[in-house]
Design goal:
Spore Coat Polysaccharide Biosynthesis Protein SpsA, Chain A; Glyco_trans_2-like
Amino acid sequence: MKVRKFIRFHNNPLFSIIILTRNGLNLTKLCIESILKNTEPNYELIFIDNASNDGTVQYLKNVKNSLIITNKENKGFSGGCNQGLKIASGKFIVLLNNDTIVPREWLKKMKDWLEKDPSIGIVGPRSNMVLPDQAISPHLYKAKTKKQIEQFAAEWSEKWRQTGYEVKRISGFCMVFRKELIEKIGGLDQRFFPGNSEDTDFCIRTRISGKKLWVANDVFIHHYGNRTFKLNNENYPHLFIENQKKLLNKWKINSLNEIDHLIIRETPFDYSKHYISL
């Protein structure tokens, strides 16, 4: 593992945005361009590269206000995120997939929910490719170009301004939470390699700790979805099934429909049992 140091624009950044990459340079460029364009400059970017060979690392070295960890082998989503969490210095942590396009004020609006309601543990956005409780109806979303995506996101945000709702799970493609949450419940469980179900497990432990999960209805983030798996020729359906089996086995449940019951069963949060070291 190699870490490239950087000079922080802010000694105390408000946000630490952690982005994993494993090839997919064109998508990563779109994501970073949208962040630089649509995010107030009170953040640090932390890139974790899992052995890309398509020029991604060379590109990331030129991104301002960023820190890059380069892995010689694929550490998976959980392993990479945990590396980023160890060095994050922001008050708020953002886990963001590299196959996304973010709109204006995306972070401010999600942060506002965390500050408005201390009982909220994690905030996520609406999207086109996401868990059902966060997904918009397919017939509503026809955007194809970056301009169309930005226009849709702006119109959606205005229509649903300052509205949100509680859910049972938040998709890991975009999560915003206070750094204190990591101090309370730990990081992502690396048994779910290379990815899938680690976000559900993180949500379960968040809820056991007494915090709720919230969707910022006024934030729409475009998500291409599962591109890293496809670009690296990984069998996504197989990984999905196998890691969900691991999740059910870990929590001793037969289906995801039993999550509410396991939350009651496992509460209060037991550090020796539920905490995941980074």
